[in-house]
Amino acid sequence: MLRFIVRRLLVAVVTLIVISLVTFGLFFAVPSSPAKVMCGKNCTAQDIAQVEERLGIRDPLPEQYTNFVSGIFVGRTFGSGEFQRECPAPCLGYSFRNDQPVTEIVTQRAPVTFSIVFGAAAIWILLGVSLGMVSALRRGTVFDRFAIGISLAGASMQVYFFGLILLYLLVYATGLLPFPTYTPLTENPAKWALGLLLPWMTLGFLNSALYARLSRAQMLETLSEDFVRTARAKGLPLRRVHTRHALRAAITPIVTIAGLDIGAALGGTFITETIFGLQGLGKATVEAVQFLNLPVVMATVLLAAIFIVIANIVVDVLYAVIDPRVRLS
Amino acid sequence: MHRRARTLSIGVLSVALLAAGCSRTTDDGGSGKGNDKAKTQTGSISYEAADNQGPAAAVQGATKGGTVTVLREADFEHLDPARNYVNVQQLTTGLIYRSLTGYKENGTGEMTLVGDLAKDPGKDVNGDCKVWEFTLRDGLKYEDGSPVTSKDVAYGVARSFAPQLNEGPHYIQQWLYPGGEYNATYKGPYDGGKPTPDGVETPDDKTVRFTFAEPHCDMPYAAAMATTAPVPSAKDTKTNYDLRPFSSGPYKVKSYQRDVALELERNPNWDPNTDPLRTAYPDGFKFTFGLEAAQIAERLVADAPADQAAFTWTDVPPAVLPRTASGPVAERVVKGPTQYTWVLNINTQRVTDLNVRKALNHALDKDAALKAIGGKAAGTPATTLMSPTTAGWKAYDVFGTPPSGDANKAKELLAGKTPELVLAHANSELRTQQAEAIRKSLTERGFKITMKSIELSSYYDEVGRKNNPYDLYLGGWGSDWPTGSTIIPPLYDGREILPEGNQNLSYFNDPGISAEIDRVRKLPAAEQDAEWMKLDEKIMREFVPVVPVYYDATYVLHGSKVGNAYLSDAFGAFQVNNIYVKQ
Questions:
Q1: What mean pLDDT is reported for chain B?
Q2: Contact, A101 vs A72, CB < 8 A?
Q3: Residues 6 or more apart from A104 whose CB is under 8 A from it?
Q4: Whole-angstrom distance, CA of residue B164 vs CA of residue B532
Q5: Do residue A172 and residue B302 have CB atoms under 8 angstroms apart?
Q6: Beta carbons of B299 and A172 less than 8 Å apart
Q7: Distance of alpha carbon A74 from alpha carbon B77, whole angstroms
Q8: pTM here?
Q9: Do strands B284-288 and B101-104 pair parallel, antiparallel, or not at all (unpaired)?
Q10: In chain B, is it the N or the C terminus that has fewer CB atoms within a 10 Å radius of its CB?
Q11: Cβ count near B187 (within 10 Å)
Q12: What residues contact B399, with CB distance under 8 A and at least 6 apart?
């Protein structure tokens, strides 16, 4: 098991190095000069040179990259003289627009995105899997048809449509819920949950659809397998047959998809954050793109990649836990 | 420079509309029965003791307490006084720090410029507008209780020369170092520079004196900009000052998370008796950033308990306009003209025939051009060069054409010719729609128009090149203070035309008008207003370098618990100095 994990981690590190190289190259290959953008309209060549020096983009590209990477581990310093700025490790760059290290910006914004995604994921997995399981067990009943109908509706809707409808119905028209806000969980858990209820409901409902359909199909398949019949024939209680035997076998592909979905959601919550006016990583990325705040863009792109890579590792490990056959190979 | 901020905000607006999946309606939206509170300007400078003394007049029915929420699309660009050049920023920082002078307003259009930190709007020492002296009030304190001194004002001016802090207005700096770039010789107090620029003296802790080589009778107005806000050198955190300006006003920064939120709380060391401008009724302000224009409008229309003490500076988008036109919501609309006028510049280097320029004025359908960007809520058709919020403004109409244009008169002036003209426009959604409307009316009325789309972010750079290949292009301009001296000279003085970076976009150049500009500039401030207005009319009557298209308007909402809501005449936006939260 340990060897398995170590091997997966090594592959992940290589992946991340490649991604960081590509994003780095991409952003410094763009024709627009970030220094010129930052400097404004009435800017002399001398001013631009000064800004470039502050940004650390006057050195040759390979050196810039090694500076960037070493900054992550040991920190670095930007600019010189009265305008010198320290960027402690892990330094993902320094945003002169915000006048703060990018790491600080990211750690301020990340909890918002994490709260949205993990809260919603809890809803969509629980709701989706239980709906699918019950539908499978009561195949052909009214409940089954109803649940499948609902999930079809959910699967065919989009966040920016369903979210706006919920906003209108629950906030603008009736005032049942407050407009979403983010309060740190540690500050006030009730306010945290209330403020995020709408995005959770939206994402939870939309994503649960896929899970319901998938787990229904998987359950139906495993329920007809020989080992389930054997378990039933041995006289095991039905509940035990369904959860310990059938569900465990049915859930492996769902874990894979859930892991990838969560990883992707962490890096792609821009639309949800925009609709609900929440200031998470997604919005930080798009704002940074608008203002050509390259250090922030690079950091968030890299983070989104890290989320996916981590999600993949977690999925692989969970897979091994759930399905012993994976470990053996 | 006031042009830039506006273009940006329009750009952001169109992006927001796209992101929210909204489309603009083609009708002209709600006509609104709200409070059309910005009246024609009667601005003046007052030395009356009654106007210049604190405390500010109490607002009837106002109560202390509560927190006002401000809903915004994006964060402020800068709060640092040296970098502060956008109207809503200036209104916001007016709560945090004070300048030498300021605008006293009550929402009725009676606006007077009075002393803020200074006891009065400044003393013209020799009567030639070259030496200006300001004396600070007694009892002025910063948030830590230390006294505000004239040295801090001088230091604030000094640091505004620093190239790292170059985003603010540069009037006073340019007047101190005339000829050439404002900071070519003096680059601020950093990296070994002198602590104060030439021409700025502080004979004692209460007095600051400015000495200029040329007469600048506008100094009391220039001193109202954040350039003269005091910055104690010990508290100067340079580029970091943006995030935490040191308070000399009624509020101080409690917390500021860039792009997320800014919170202000009371500065207990501010003494209302030293302040003729601010009543400071609310206990605090909370600015929320990163919302869409449609979200803001919907929330304010819904008026949920959490949003009742909220307001916005973001115009209501066309999709929400109809729902603000009647009922209780209409009572919460604040609308009126801003200081921006939009004109269709005629490149006079290329279009030299005066009759063609006159025909353009008759042919253009101003109503259609306005409809394309939101109708009445977006503005009203214009006939003058200056905005109605300018001191001394008087309506005139040289051509007497209806706002929808007059095809017959246009064709008569063209006398059978079909001039071929190139119409350039910024490539944003709104500006493209508007250019299409302009092209349509001109084409129908005797012109042959070729459209040329320009990238939004480089629009003013392109049309600002002297030898640009375009004949017609829109341009908006807002004055930096409400007098003609920051409108007519930058836009219509031919001697200021440069190879690139021009503000005079019609490249209008007449020695007679330039001489007039020099004459008016030297008049005492009070006499200038009427003269700028006369010059405005003279330019349009004799030279026709532009087609005035519309006076920009703002149309915003506030929650039901916001009291004393009115538009600032000086800034063309919701004024915050005297609002209160209804209990």
A1: 89
A2: no
A3: none
A4: 35
A5: yes
A6: yes
A7: 31
A8: 0.84
A9: unpaired
A10: C
A11: 17
A12: B358, B361, B362, B383, B409
Burial of B334 (0-12, 13-18, 19+ CB in 10 A): buried
How far is it, in rounded angstroms, from Cα B342 to Cα B319? 23
Hey, are the CB atoms on B238 and A287 less than 8 Å from each other? no
The DSSP-derived string for A2-16 is HHHHHHHHHHHHHHH
For residues B392 and B484, what is the distance between their CA atoms, to the nearest angstrom? 8
Q: Peptide bond preceding B381: is omega within 30 degrees of 0, i.e. cis?
A: no
Chain B: closest CA distance from residue A88 (Å): 17
Please check whether residue B236 touches A, CB under 8 A.
no
Alpha carbon distances (Å) from A144 to A88, A148, B73: 56, 6, 45
- Phi and psi at A76, nearest 5°, equal -155, 175
Give the CB-side neighbour count of residue B285, counting CA atoms within 13 A.
28
In degrees to the nearest 10, what's the CA dihedral of B315, B571, B391, B226? -160
List of chain A residues with pLDDT < 70: 27-34, 36-44, 81-82, 326-329
B293-302 and B2-19 are packed helices; what angle lies between their axes, rounded to 10 degrees?
Answer: 80
Both structure tokens of B394 = 């008087």
d(Cα B492, Cα B509) in Å, to the nearest integer? 7
| Interface ipTM | 0.81
Q: What is the model's pLDDT at position B552? A: 94
Contact B259 A98 (CB under 8 A): yes
Among A108, A109, A171, beta carbon nearest to B302: A171
Which residues have C-beta within 8 Å of that of residue B420, sequence separation ≥ 6? B447, B448, B449, B450
Measured distance between the N- and C-terminal CA atoms of chain A, rounded to whole angstroms = 11
- Residue B108: how many CB atoms within 10 A of its CB? 12
